C-alpha cells in the first residue's frame, strides 16, 4: 500500500512539473479603456508575451523583451497613441495596430527570423521599423490623412 501511494505521489509530481510553463515564459495581458492610458514593460528570457489593448485617451505603451521567441502585440484605438516595443534575440514577433489620432510606432528587433508588422489609420501616423539580423520579415500599412 505504501509503495502504491509513493508511486502515485511521484506520478502526480511529475505530471505537475511537466504541465507547468517554463520559468521564463511570462505572459502579460493588459486592457485599458478610458482616458489617460499608459502601460510599460520589460521581460527577460524566452517565450515571453505582452498583449496590450488600449481604447481611447492618451494611450501609450512600451514593451522591451530580451531573449528569443517573444511576442508583443499592441492594439490602440483612439487619441494620442504612441507604441514602441524592442525585442532582442531571434524568432521574436511584434505587431502594433493604431487607429485614429496622432500615432507613432517604433518596432525594433534584433536577431534572426523576427517578424514585425503594423497598421496606422487616420491622422498623425509615423513609424520606425528596424530589424537586425537575417531572415526577418516586416510589413507596415499606413493610411494617414
Give structural notes.
The chain is mainly β and about 140 residues long. It has one domain (about 25-145). The protein has one helix at about 1-20; strands at about 25-35, 45, 50-55, 65-70, 70-75, 85-90, 95-100, 105-110, 115-125, 130, 135-145. The protein has a 6-stranded parallel beta sheet, with no helix packed on it. It has a 5-stranded parallel beta sheet with strand order 2-4-6-8-10, with no helix packed on it. It is flat and about 35 Å long. Residues about 5-20 have low confidence and may be disordered.
Helix-strand blueprint:
Elements: H1 2-19, E1 27-33, E2 43-46, E3 49-55, E4 65-68, E5 71-76, E6 86-88, E7 93-101, E8 107-110, E9 115-123, E10 129-132, E11 137-143
What's a concise summary of this model?
The protein has 145 residues and is mainly β. It is built from one helix and eleven strands.
Using brief descriptors, characterize the structure shown:
6-stranded parallel sheet; mainly beta; about 140 residues; about 10% helix; flat; 5-stranded parallel sheet; disordered N terminus
Amino acid at each position: 500500500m505504501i509503495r502504491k501511494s509513493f508511486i502515485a505521489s511521484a506520478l502526480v509530481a511529475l505530471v505537475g512539473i511537466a504541465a507547468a510553463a517554463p520559468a521564463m515564459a511570462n505572459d502579460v495581458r493588459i486592457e485599458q479603456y478610458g482616458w489617460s492610458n499608459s502601460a510599460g514593460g520589460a521581460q527577460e528570457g524566452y517565450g515571453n508575451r505582452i498583449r496590450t489593448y488600449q481604447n481611447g485617451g492618451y494611450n501609450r505603451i512600451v514593451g522591451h523583451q530580451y531573449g528569443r521567441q517573444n511576442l508583443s502585440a499592441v492594439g490602440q484605438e483612439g487619441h494620442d497613441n504612441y507604441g514602441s516595443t524592442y525585442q532582442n534575440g531571434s524568432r521574436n514577433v511584434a505587431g502594433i495596430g493604431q487607429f485614429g489620432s496622432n500615432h507613432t510606432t517604433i518596432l525594433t528587433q534584433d536577431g534572426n527570423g523576427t517578424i514585425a508588422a503594423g497598421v496606422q489609420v487616420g491622422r498623425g501616423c509615423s513609424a520606425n521599423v528596424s530589424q537586425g539580423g537575417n531572415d526577418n520579415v516586416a510589413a507596415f500599412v499606413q493610411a494617414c490623412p
